[in-house]
Structure formats: C-alpha cells, structure tokens
Specification:
338 residues, Alpha-Beta Plaits, alpha/beta, single chain, 34% helix, TIM Barrel, globular, 12 helices, four-stranded antiparallel β-sheet
Length: 338
C-alpha cells in the first residue's frame, strides 16, 4: 500500500506513521515531494490494517497497490523520476538524453577518439564495455580495469559521464572507482545476487531487458535493486527474441509507453542491439524518440570493420552525425528536444 500524507504533515507525524507501519512487521520507503510525503509500505499488508493507518494524524489517503512491484510503481512517486548520471539528468524532462560510444573499449586512443566524435555530434553520456559478456568464451572479453581507466580518462577530456557494464558482484568496488552508472546486461537481468549488490551501490543502474523477459519480469528485476535502497534505476528496452529472424532481435517499442504508464522509472531504448543491423538502426532510433523514450543508447565505432565486438551493428561517425538533426526534428515534432 501507499500512504499519502497531508500537505502540512509534521515530521513527528510522519515518524509516528512509519513507526506504526513497522509495528506490523512491514518495511517502508519514503519519497518526499514538494508538498506531500509518500510512504510506500513493503510487505503483505492486510487491507484491514488500512483503516487505523488512515485515521492517523497527518494521513491524507491510504491507497492499496495490487501490483507485485511496489517501489517501481508509478503510484510510488505519483509522477516520473529524474535520474542523475553524472551531470546529466534522464527522465522527467522534455529532453531526450543521447548515450553513445563503442561496444567495447579497445584502447585509450580508440575510446577517446570516439568520445570526442560523439560529443561533438550531440551525445551527452559515454558508453563503453570494459567487461564483456560474450556467447563464445574465445571472443574478446574486454580490457578489465585498464578499460575502466581509459573510460575515466575520456570523461576527464570530454566532460561526459560514463556508463559501463558490470557482470560480477566482485568487480563492483573497482567499477565504482571509475564509472558514473552501472549497466546490467540482458543476460544478467535476472541475476538476483548481482541485482541486490548493485542495489546497495551509490551509482545509478541501467537495467536492460532480457531476451525473453516480459515487461513485468523487467520491472520485478528493477524492484530487487530498489528494495536494497538504490532508487536510481533506468529501464532499457534492447530487443527481445521472437519468431522473426530477419533482424537480430525484435525491438519492442510497445514497451516505452507501457513502462512509462506502469512505473516512474526513466525508459531508455537501445536500437543498436534491438535490430543488430547498422542500416536500420537510424530508423529505429527515430521511432524510439517518437514513442517517448527518455534516452537513446547508440553504438558508434570509427572502424567497425575491425571492431573487436559487434562491429556489424555500430554506426560509423558520419552516419551518427547525419542522424542527429533527424532525431532533433522528430523530438521537436512530439514536443521534446535532443
């Protein structure tokens, strides 16, 4: 359930409400708005317990939340959340953030060159993998901490905050030294031990939808992170497996408006992985903006023909640069900016 306080509820009244909830053996998460405080009650509260809570001083309303997720529910915030990634805010704004960079960090020169290129074109957040989950154990697995250092150097040179993937909870202290946002890849969306660990991190988390996950599966995975206290979670649609084999995956743009109606969390779209074919990435990026995405994640590589991973889907710098004014035009047409 969710308890909404009266506009002028005192701190003492709020503390008494929280204490009363905890007497039932339940936990709470508190969201403070401009005029009201929302208290999310976590646990299997019986409806019979609502009446004494509704009668407490300072309580305006008690609203049952029948969804399996509580902290991710739109009702918890009563509006969209804004998540800071370094100096960039994603969500609860008309601006569409642009996340870009290579699939893998291959060298300091490579990541710095691409970072400078995408920033000049209009990107505001840099992505790059230092630890890479690969289908084959013989494929390039990333540069590890060296890759993280190269990303941090690129941030110093360009001012763009950095997103990078975490695969192993043991790597969290190392990644936290260098990154501004943790990415949970599709393969780890239901790695609950990892989700709990990043839920205790100070860094925001970009959670990618699994290949065969429903939207409820994705939101429930986000709930694992939120329950540990990390309220800075972004949901990422990156394509799912269907019977269609013309593209690498099927980019489910239905997810954007549905997720934004069910949760307060920002929604990111990754058209690069969603379709996996360079020539069609621009069209899907344009469609994602029209669908209401809060951010786009687009891979760019200066020499994709020799990239160590996913070269076939990465945009070249010239294609990326040509795409930006088209994205801005679509954003403007739907009342947004990029």
């Amino acid at each position: 359930m969710i308890i909404i306080t009266q506009p002028h509820a005192t701190e003492a009244q709020i503390e008494r409400i929280v204490a009363r909830v905890r007497e039932f053996g339940l936990d709470v998460q508190i969201s403070r708005g401009a005029s009201r405080v929302i208290i999310c009650v976590i646990g299997s509260a019986e409806l019979a317990k609502e009446k004494p809570l509704a009668a407490m001083p300072g309580v305006e309303a008690v609203i049952p939340v029948l969804k399996p997720y509580k902290l991710a529910a739109y009702e918890f915030r009563g509006g969209a959340s804004s998540i800071p990634i370094g100096n960039v805010k994603v969500g609860r704004t008309e601006h569409v953030a642009l996340i870009s960079g290579p699939c893998s960090v291959e060298s300091q020169e490579q990541i710095l060159s691409i970072a400078q290129t995408v920033k000049k074109a209009g990107a505001t957040i840099l992505r790059g993998g230092a630890f890479k989950p690969r289908t084959s154990p013989y494929s390039f697995q990333g540069l590890g901490e060296d890759g993280l250092r190269f990303l941090a150097h690129a941030r110093e040179e360009t001012g763009m905050p950095v997103i990078t993937e975490i695969m192993d909870p043991r790597d969290l202290p190392t990644i936290e030294k260098y990154a501004d946002c943790l990415q949970i890849g599709a393969r780890n969306m239901q790695n609950f031990s990892l989700l709990k660990e990043v839920g205790r991190s100070r860094l925001p988390v970009l959670l990618k939808r699994g290949f065969s996950a429903t939207l409820n599966d994705l939101i429930m995975s986000a709930e694992y992170i939120l329950k540990e206290g990390n309220m800075n979670v972004l949901l990422c649609e990156r394509g799912i497996r269907t019977f269609e084999n013309a593209a690498r995956y099927t980019l489910d743009l239905n997810a954007v408006p549905i997720l934004k109606s069910r949760t307060h969390l920002p929604v990111v779209v990754d058209p690069t992985h969603g379709i996996g074919l360079r020539e069609f990435v621009p069209q899907m990026a344009l469609a994602a903006v029209a669908a209401g995405a809060d951010a786009l994640m687009i891979e760019v590589h200066d020499t994709p023909e020799i990239a160590k991973s996913d070269g076939e889907q990465a945009l070249t710098p010239d294609i990326f640069e040509e795409l930006i004014p088209r994205l801005r035009a679509v954003a403007q047409a739907v009342g947004r900016s990029l």
